[in-house]
Amino acid sequence: xxxxxxxxxxxxxxxxxxxxxxxxxxxxxxxxxxxxxxxxxxxxxxxxxxxxxxxxxxxxxxxxxxxxxxxxxxxxxxxxxxxxxxxxxxxxxxxxxxxxxxxxxxxxxxxxxxxxxxxxxxxxxxxxxxxxxxxxxxxxxxxxxxxxxxxxxxxxxxxxxxxxxxxxxxxxxxxxxxxxxxxxxxxxxxxxxxxxxxxxxxxxxxxxxxxxxxxxxxxxxxxxxxxxxxxxxxxxxxxxxxxxxxxxxxxxxxxxxxxxxxxxxxxxxxxxxxxxxxxxxxxxxxxxxxxxxxxxxxxxxxxxxxxxxxxxxxxxxxxxxxxxxxxxxxxxxxxxxxxxxxxxxxxxxxxxxxxxxxxxxxxxxxxxxxxxxxxxxxxxxxxxxxxxxxxxxxxxxxxxxxxxxxxxxxxxxxxx
Length: 416
Ligand code: ADP
Ligand code: MG
Description:
Elements: H1 6-12, E1 18-22, E2 29-30, E3 37-38, H2 42-56, E4 60-64, H3 81-90, E5 95-97, H4 104-111, E6 118-120, H5 135-147, E7 158-161, E8 183-185, H6 187-201, E9 207-211, H7 216-226, E10 232-235, H8 240-246, H9 261-271, E11 277-279, E12 283-287, E13 296-300, E14 314-318, H10 320-331, E15 335-339, H11 352-363, E16 367-371, H12 373-381, E17 391-392, H13 396-403, H14 409-414
Parallel strand pairs: 1-4, 1-7, 4-6, 5-6, 7-8, 9-10, 9-15, 10-11, 15-16, 16-17
Antiparallel strand pairs: 2-3, 12-13, 12-14
Helix pairs in contact: 7-13, 8-9, 10-11
The structure holds adenosine-5'-diphosphate (ADP) and magnesium ion.
Magnesium ion binds next to helix 12.
């Protein structure tokens, strides 16, 4: 059964109806100033169209979202206030923020919403039941959330899931709530799924996948599935050191997941003789410490421990020769999926690999997809424009789990 669409909801009539929308407002913040500011508003922008359509149609919109990983209790550091403020700046409609999630303020503000008004609830993860493993706890929280969409005049509420970045989570606002209200799929989720379908069903070849970033074990799992689909797997970022170690190389003090070395060895074996090829860096930018101003040099990828910094050498970026090799593969690709920065791009001295890869994506004639919160932030902070890429996904983990072939609870709940 296909999920019901936002179009279907709107054409059924939403004027005066409370509509709970799960959006992805999980944006990176800069806390260094007097009040936190949003450093990459990509997810807020991507959430706008659905909110706008519902507001235009006269719905009373209640937005549910999370930010970061607070510990199941209110924590000002993780308030959605900066995200709601940015939404209010971008939006032609009014935006209010509730002081709590399903408490007195949320109930009162939800109950007095005007037609077309938009209320953002505080961070869902301020309530431990949102992410609870216990079905009963999550269910009780989902009941409270659904209760916000109850009106005295008995208008039936509805639920729209537009948070692609959270569809891989079995959380109350993503999974349990969908069985408590008529549930619909938001346009952002639809668009993201269409792109991923293209990647999995019939990618134009060569199909090049570039993987990096820091969540090594999270990202290794996807390789299993991609080995049967992609023509080239380009590996950079923090996970590359687990590959280099699996080949028997000395990686100094670089990021390494020793318990994954056997898995990586299996991948390397499985791929030899298949139609897929791993492309690993041959040179690495190593530093004396994990710091923006650390001393650094370019070292051969097979002997980081013999660089100037010896056993304390930390690999923080792929080297220039490797970046150029990656770029050549990308430029001659017809389809590119990229997840995870090639190095610690937040430090200018170690941003070159990520910049070279991003540039190559903008130069290739192929269809390009960038996934992952930090990867999206990287291309924007390095000065690239969204429209230089085929698609910038709002969901890192979600797109990886989709490509792994896993069932995604948020989609199952919508009947996808
Ligand atoms: P995404 O959000 O795009 O999925 P991740 O969250 O997995 O990406 O990883 C992003 C982080 O990876 C960045 O903050 C970057 O600094 C870090 N990173 C990249 N290369 C390395 C490395 N060699 N060592 C440590 N961290 C790295
Ligand atoms: Mg990340």
